[in-house]
Amino acid sequence: MTFHTLVTETSSASKPKPIQPFTMVSNPVSRKEAPSSKLPSFFPLLLLPLLSACYVQWGRFSPVQDAIKSFYTAHLHPLTASPLSATQTLAAQYAAACPDHRPKTHIFSTDPLIIYVEEYLSRDEISYLLDLAVPYYQQSPVSKGYNLEAYDSEIRSSMSAVLPADPVVQCIEQRSVDFQGFMPRSRLEDIQVVKYAVADHFRPHFDWFSGMANPRVSTFFVYLACDGGERPSTHGNDSDSEMPQCEGGATQFPHYEGFFARSWCKFIDCEDDSGAGGVAFKPIVGNAVFWGNLYPNGTGHPGVWHAGMPVKRGRKVGLNIFTRRDTWVPE
């Protein structure tokens, strides 16, 4: 199977605007006083939405962050400890501190730079993101020249959800920039979940294109689900052996021409018969593929031409994390 159309992934909330035409395209809370002098015991709970908004807006400033955490610990946590859902509990834990998460890395290629990452996300993080994404799904767009709001199912068929910032999302973002040499989190685009059903795909494309004023220097694609279809999340209680697995949906690099050891076959489909060529990474839940999009001189690397291969059975859900060269400003 050979494809010739070039497309660029774009966030459904904001799309990159090229400076010049191109043919290669890469690829969204009044308070009344109580009659008595004492405030009701549940009053701190009324501030929870405001505190969450403050954390998202100003959480990067440590004095504000520390103040919010202190108020939560002193007033909110004793009141909400028992009724909190698993999702709320995880968010509260991550608001207090990001976990010390240490994934396993394997360098697959140095030219282009492709790194395979085991256990990039925990099971609880995966379940959290799958739940968080549900109300935000929209049809995935593609960019074709100046037409930045195109929808073409022949090129890309999937649903995308741009995630709102919250403590869990921000910890994952911090992990992603720390992985790349502790760069500022401001260089990340809003991260997005992408869901593929049977026959959904993304034809070969780059995440960079000529004329990008602030190019994407790198990409993470993290696998959140590869199962038989929609199901409720259970926050860490899944058993992969009991769940039907999806078929297809590999991340394919058709231009890869190197060799690799047989040990890579636990991550790579060594029996790939798609005809697309190159190398195909299996959608293994929790793991990620990271690659650099540019040469050191800033020009795009042709070796990272990649595709989301069609899903043959079940569904695949992934997480896109794009890093820009400079501070990212939604366009």
From TrEMBL:
Keywords: Dioxygenase, Iron, Metal-binding, Oxidoreductase. Transmembrane segments: none annotated. One of its GO terms (molecular function) is iron ion binding. Residues 187-325 form the Fe2OG dioxygenase domain. Coiled coil: none annotated. Pfam families: 2OG-FeII_Oxy_3. Its cofactor is L-ascorbate. The keyword Manganese does not apply. This is Fe2OG dioxygenase domain-containing protein. PROSITE patterns: FE2OG_OXY. One of its GO terms (cellular component) is endoplasmic reticulum.
